Amino acid sequence: MIVRTLEEITGTERDVEAPTWRSRRLVLAKEKVGFSLHETVLYAGTETRMWYANHIEAVYCIGGEGELINEETGDKYRLEPGTMYLLDGHEHHVVRAHTDLRTVCVFNPPVTGREVHDENGVYPLITEET
Which helix (H) or strand (E) holds 92? Predict the structure, then answer.
């Protein structure tokens, strides 16, 4: 059994920050459970362009307000507490955070915690040694 709090991972290698967001990784690939679990805050007034070519991501909004744009179709969706989106088709997308947007994210395959978005917004596929 694993029990972990946001407080205990704050400031560790599981606490990753970029110019438009901060992600605290509660479960990573090294736990060997088939997914990773993150609490991510996208900062108010920012826009983050992403494309998970190697991962499926589910995102559940638990705080704040924003907008999700599917860059392939132009469709726009309001993000607010209680909204979930699933990137099951590796969609190119943009998240605009109107306020600090607090989310819970699940990735499959799980991330290791060492991934960094490349120039296309993609996380590389990094695996843990067995």
Answer: strand 92-97
d(CA 103, CA 118): 21
Each residue of 97-117: b (16+ CB within 10 Å) or e?
A: bbebbbbebbbebbbbbebeb
Rounded CA-CA distance 76/96 in Å is: 10
Give dist(CA 80, CA 78) in Å, integer.
7
Q: How far is CA 6 from CA 3, 38, 70, 74, in A?
A: 10, 10, 30, 35
Segment 10-31 shows an average pLDDT of 95
Query: Distance (Å, rounded) from C-alpha 110 to C-alpha 49?
Result: 20
pTM: 0.88
How high is the pLDDT of residue 130? 47
Q: Which of 47-51, 57-61, 114-118 has the lowest mean pLDDT?
A: 114-118
